[in-house]
Write a structure and sequence with these properties.
34% helix, 3 helices, alpha+beta, 4-stranded antiparallel β-sheet
Length: 85
């Protein structure tokens, strides 16, 4: 299992389109992927769950991935959230 704390670098935060893109990225992987923000923990492959977080640029969240492709999943998600994509 991989776990990492990330500060969102996307200028728009996690609004509808960025959330949809994050869900698409997470869904490419077999690993179970979760996003945690304060007391909320949601499946990163669930668009409805991700929308409930209402994350903004500069907010801190924790990403966890568990499965055979967890390292690749974490790397791609981190790059996306940091605004490097």
């Amino acid at each position: 299992m991989q776990k990492k704390t990330i500060t969102i670098g996307l200028s728009t935060g996690l609004e509808a389109r960025p959330v949809a893109m994050l869900v698409q990225i997470a869904s490419q992987y077999e690993s179970a992927i979760y996003v945690e923000e304060q007391n909320a923990r949601v499946n990163a492959k669930s668009i409805m769950g991700m929308m409930t977080l209402g994350m903004k640029s500069g907010d801190v969240l924790t990403i966890s991935a568990d499965g055979t492709d967890e390292l690749a999943a974490m790397k791609e998600i981190e790059c996306y959230l940091l605004g490097a994509n």
